[in-house]
Design a protein that fits this description.
With about 350 residues, this protein is an alpha+beta fold. About 55% of the residues lie in helices and about 10% in strands.
Length: about 350
């Protein structure tokens, strides 16, 4: 049995008791039953959560329906008390007598109008509040998308950075060049404005996350390059792989990608075999220089001075790897098609896969 069926059953029970007391002339019991039924009705409405209004159609609101039916029901049962000892007379005296004896029931019936008006005004206020919330949400969402589109347009207009030579003699005219560009600018936007979203709207406070992320990347780049200086050249390929992992991880998080790349490079030393997207140390340097330029532009948008390269910041030494690092690194005799960078240790050490996911 649903809520409406339960309420109707109780209404029939109380109405039956009231009619019984009316025609058996028990006014005290009738009055107690009538008042108890009203109190009980309020309790039922409260337990069913029907005292609350929502923004749905007013005719579907139990409280509005009750504001009309309860006064009408009370009018009828009280009217029966005064009508039961009188006959119907369609005369002027009869109508005058009807109005005279029905004053209290009519006053009760008239209360329906102000009660329904109060409920209607509350309902209208709720609807207006919802409309305001929807308008605010739409404005916040629109402002967020405007902010996002503005930044994405800026990132989309960033230049494409050419990496490597297009063709090299001795390789049958193979194209070793590629381009680096911001392919997924929303990733940078999310890091720049971490508090901006479609629900709460745009936030114009730049999050510190992107600056920390950029500084961490360049600190790690410096750390790897410094380690290559202090270690045996037999580990050059290992550090190339570590540097490439770091670069690709950073690029993935920032939505930066290589495009127009057709080949990768497989090389082997006594200790390691690597597959890499780079063909020369110059490729690595150009990639770092391109990422450095993108980072500088991001800091310019943020409105902060670059602070992510603390050592060698006055020169190109950090970004120019051609001055002596990885001297054994160069093009392989047979370039491979583009594949994920991997490294294999050849001295009884199991193969490691490059984790870029």
């Amino acid at each position: 049995m649903n809520k409406t069926s339960k309420l109707l059953s109780l209404a029939f029970i109380f109405t039956g008791l009231e009619l019984l007391f009316i025609y058996n002339d028990y006014p005290t019991l009738f009055l107690i039953t009538n008042l108890f039924s009203i109190v009980f009705l309020i309790v039922v409405f409260y337990s069913f959560s029907w005292l609350k209004l929502d923004d749905d159609n007013l005719l579907k609101q139990p409280l509005f329906i009750a504001s009309i039916l309860v006064p009408l029901h009370t009018f009828l049962v009280y009217g029966l008390w005064v009508w039961k000892d009188h006959n119907i007379a369609f005369t002027s005296d009869g109508f005058s007598n009807f109005l005279n004896i029905t004053k209290l029931p009519l006053i009760i019936l008239a209360s329906s109008a102000p009660l329904a008006a109060i409920v209607n005004n509350i309902h209208r206020t709720i609807q207006t509040k919802k409309q305001i919330r929807i308008a605010e949400a739409n404005n916040l969402g629109s402002s967020f998308h405007t902010q996002q589109k503005h930044l994405i347009d800026i990132f989309n207009n960033f230049p494409e950075y050419k990496i490597g030579n297009e063709k090299t003699e001795g390789y049958d005219g193979l194209n070793f060049s590629k381009k680096l560009k911001i392919k997924y600018p929303r990733r940078i936007f999310k890091r720049m404005y971490t508090k901006s979203n479609v629900i709460s709207g745009p936030s114009y406070t730049t999050g510190a996350e992107i600056k920390l992320f950029i500084r961490f990347f360049w600190n790690e780049v410096e750390s790897i390059i410094n380690e290559t200086i202090n270690n045996n050249e037999e580990y050059d390929f290992y550090y190339i792989h570590e540097l490439e992992k770091l670069i690709f991880s950073f690029m993935k998080e920032m939505g930066i990608s290589f495009i127009e790349q057709k080949h990768s490079n497989t090389q082997q030393s006594r200790k390691f075999m690597i597959t890499t997207n780079f063909f020369t140390t110059s490729d690595i340097s150009e990639t770092l220089q391109s990422i450095y330029s993108i980072c500088e532009e991001i800091y310019a948008i943020i409105g902060a001075p670059p602070d992510f390269v603390k050592i060698h910041s006055e020169t190109d030494d950090l970004l120019n790897l051609s001055w002596g690092l990885f001297e054994n690194f160069g093009r392989s005799l047979v370039p491979t098609t583009v594949r994920r960078p991997t490294i294999m240790r050849l001295l009884d050490i199991p193969r490691e896969s490059w984790e870029d996911e």
